[in-house]
Amino acid sequence: MLNGNQSLTNSTAEQQYQGILERALFSTLTTVPCCVFLFINGTMLFTLRSKPVFRETSRYILLYNLLFADTVQMTLSQLLYIIAACRIRLTYPVCGVLTMIADLTNEVSPLTLMVMSLERYVAVCYPLRHATIITIRSTGVAIIVVWAFCSLNVLTRVILLLEFPFEELESLQMKDFCSDIAMLIGSMSDHYDKAYTCFLFISATVAITSSYIGVMIAARSASTDKASARKARNTLLLHLVQLGLSLSSTIYNPILIALSRIVKRLVFVRVQNVFYMCIFLFPRCLSSLIYGIRDQTIRPVLVYHLCCRLKLSVVPAKAEMST
After folding, report:
1. In Å, how far are 42, 47, 60, 116, 171 from 52, measured between CA atoms?
2. DSSP readout, 167-185?
3. Is the Cβ–Cβ distance between 259 and 300 less than 8 Å?
4. Is residue 302 within 8 Å of 44, Cβ to Cβ?
5. pLDDT truncated to tens, each residue of the chain (323 aa)?
């Protein structure tokens, strides 16, 4: 009997040890790439504010807004992931603030992509009127409208949350880890979240697809610059891909809810970690890579800022060798 209890204790300790190692492994696999891409995104944001051409061009201003939202979203997602990996349970108010900010920035991205697509459509289809329609002032107004619309959605969710009888709870300490799923308290919040998500991405998909069709039609016109139309068409295709990747994050919660009912918790946690890397981290890193590599104006400045420390360390060494 004593040997049986001892073997059971050893088995439980071994499982706990494996669980700690697995959490440490997954945390490392997500945190290291996240830090790398946060550095790239931060450098890209600095690059877009480093020269007047970036600060005074509408598409670069919109790109800055997109990258800023993605960077904040990636930072908050990784913070919530580390909190969950460390088995820290937050209170409902703290979790609510973090998830609402994450939701806000997550919704800004597809709307910004929609505005960027419309800007490309005007540039190709109405080149003579582009400078008068797409100005720094109109771009700023569009960005303010995007953030105000998303903030209104967050405010609506807060109002729906306030209807939950929190005073009946023994404690405001959460029984589960902080996440979007944990904050969908009540059926009204769940229904509203699904309806708003469908409306958001259907609207963005229609706008980007319509812009793409408009550019395709304009490309066949003899008066249209073929090279400019082809570049705009490829850019709009990339916007559609980015929108699709953003859309994949909306099916993240339903998939996890379905999986939680059919698989064991250990398998569920492993799948959740893989989905987090593929659905949340990867799409947030694409914008800086796509525009940093494709755009001929951004690329040399971005590479310079990414490699400036290396250059600074190499130049003195060469100077010493010459002396």
Report:
1. 18, 11, 11, 20, 53
2. GGSS-SB-SS--STTTT--
3. no
4. yes
5. 434 334 334 334 444 444 677 777 777 877 888 888 888 888 889 888 888 888 888 889 999 999 999 899 888 888 888 888 888 888 888 888 888 888 888 888 888 888 888 888 888 788 778 888 888 999 999 999 999 999 998 888 888 877 766 666 677 777 777 877 666 666 677 778 778 878 877 887 788 788 778 777 776 764 556 666 677 777 777 777 777 777 666 666 667 777 777 877 677 777 777 777 777 777 777 777 777 777 788 888 888 877 765 554 433 434 333 43
Residue 201: both structure tokens together: 């991405």
> SS3 for 91?
strand
- Distances 130 to 39, 48, 143, 197, 239 between C-alpha atoms, Å: 34, 21, 18, 31, 20
What span, in angstroms and rounded, lies between the C-alpha atoms of 239 and 235? 6
Question: What number of other Cβ atoms are within 10 A of residue 158's Cβ?
Answer: 12
Question: How many whole angstroms separate alpha carbon 199 and alpha carbon 114?
Answer: 13
Helix crossing, 187-219 with 136-162: angle to 10°?
A: 160
Greatest distance between any 2 Cα atoms in the chain: 90
Element at 315 (helix H, strand E): helix 298-322
Q: How far apart are CA 81 and CA 147, in angstroms?
A: 25
Task: Provide the token pair at 84.
Answer: 């969950």
The beta-carbon contacts of 118-122 under 8 Å, at least 24 apart in sequence, are 118/207, 118/211, 119/58, 119/59, 119/62, 120/59, 120/211, 120/215, 120/232, 120/235, 120/236, 121/210, 121/211, 121/214, 121/215, 121/232, 121/236
How far apart CA 255 and CA 269 sit, in angstroms, is 13
